[in-house]
Amino acid sequence: MAKNVFFDMAVKKASGILGKKGRLVLLVSKLALKLRSVNWKDVKAGDVKEKFFTLGRLLKAYALGHYREIPWKPLLLLTAAVIYFVNPIDFLPDLLPVVGLTDDIGILMSVFTSFSGEIEKFIAWEKSRVISV
To answer: Boundaries of each DUF1232 domain copy (predicted)?
Structure first.
């Protein structure tokens, strides 16, 4: 991943949020609000919306203590990707229509791809809970 000072700041912030249930739940709430505000018709990146929803569910499950099977580094970087997304001021500010989400999507896709195995484990865990409930 290319050097991005705003993502570096998001990583530092993520390290302060993880381990604090209330702050992590608040971040998931901010993610939900931001996801509702995006005009997804303008986003030409296929399943990006679903990837953000998956991250939200993973972080919520982690915050509530339901899912702890994820190593620290992927959790940290996935949390940082969500922080980067909800923060309106980053490399390409979200105030710029359509273009403002380009860097957010790039960060998400990079982190999501890097830790796809961990995310697949979470999705499998999620499905097993639905079946067994």
So the answer is: 76-109
Q: CA-CA distance, 131 to 98, in Å (whole number)?
A: 38
The CB density around residue 7, as the number of other CB atoms within 10 Å, is 23
Per-residue pLDDT of the chain (133 residues; tens, 9 = 90+): 457 788 888 999 999 999 888 999 999 998 888 888 777 676 665 677 788 889 899 999 999 999 999 999 999 999 999 998 888 665 555 444 555 667 777 888 888 889 999 999 999 999 998 765 5
Q: What is the DSSP letter of 40?
A: T
Give the number of residues written for the chain: 133
Q: Tally Cβ neighbours within 10 Å of residue 19.
A: 9
Answer whether 82's CB lies under 8 Å from 1's CB.
Answer: no
